[in-house]
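hi! just following up on the protien thing from before. the input was this:
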Amino acid sequence: MAKSPRKWLALIGSAALTASGLFAQDNSKALLDLLIQKGILSPDDVKQVQAEAKKAAATSSTTVSGKLYVDVTNLDAETASGAKLSSSGTGLDVKRFYFGVTHVFDSMWSANINTDSAFSSATGATSVFIKTAYVQAKFSPEAIVQLGSANEPWIPFDEDLYTYRYVENTLIDRLHFGNSADWGVHFLGTNGMVSYNFAAVNGGGYKNPTRSKGMDFEGRVSIEPTKGLTFAVGGYTGKLGKDVEGTPALRTASRYDALVNYATKEFEFGAEWFSESDWGFTGSTSSDSGDGYALFGKVALGDANNWLFGRWDNDKTSKKLHPDLKESYFNLGWEYVAIKGVNLALVYKYDHIENPTSASAMEKSNEIGLWAQIAF
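and the predicted 3d structure came back as:
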């Protein structure tokens, strides 16, 4: 016999309230007992409600996350002419604050939104951007599709291996030869040993969602043949969102990436290399190219809460237009993991640019202080 509309409403309402957690467990049981006493539900109906509620609770969830980068440092930076830069001095900086919400509808569908807050020295104000905002369909671990603004294939992958993003951006992010997220279609997956991420994106980065005449393409393939050892290669090609009607792009930007990383519980060592051409010159009659590499590592000091870490970058970002321009950057620090989610680091940084493009451009800087990452 078909259930009456009244019984269907009772079933749906009871299942929804039980699964959502709006009622405490005792109140949920009292509601179901009352519906049985009134003859609206049978014991079999109650079992159906409880089974559906348990199934919904197992597959649906909402996660809230946040991450804060803050530092208190002394910076001494000067130009090629010997003048101090206005950024020199002692102070506190909140470099980044990310706040995100991820909702899992079921084993296949989920959605994410993550904001990025940063201070702009150009405007003297803090700006808030949508960094990621996408809907995801997970057909299997090997086939995941994300539609919207999502992580790009290279920079976030690199950050996960480097682990000291709160101290310094990774190599191509620091030199502004890539975006960490962009608007488009992202296709990624892993089988445990091999992982990949391919994206067709607008090209302007997550802060600029506008479209152009075509889309850019970025991809990465990585392999972990044994636990802790990772090899990865990647590439990018496109107009960087500059190919618009009326002012077409004149050049295509490209970038090639390679990385190797080996990590254990006691130490980690990694190396990254990139080569690019016409990045930032897609609308210019001039052409340029650059390349660089980074070496980074860390070693545990007695336990997993104390680490000695360091990094060295070497790059030439204008090999055609300014062939004598060369940069060397390094940092050395001690990290203390206070509790899970709170990382503190005492760090010294040094940056030297040989033959800068103008007398007013920075030539060298020294910075020392405390950096912190608070994540939840």
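The CA atoms of residues 65 and 81 lie 45 Å apart.
The chain has a mean pLDDT of 90.
cheers
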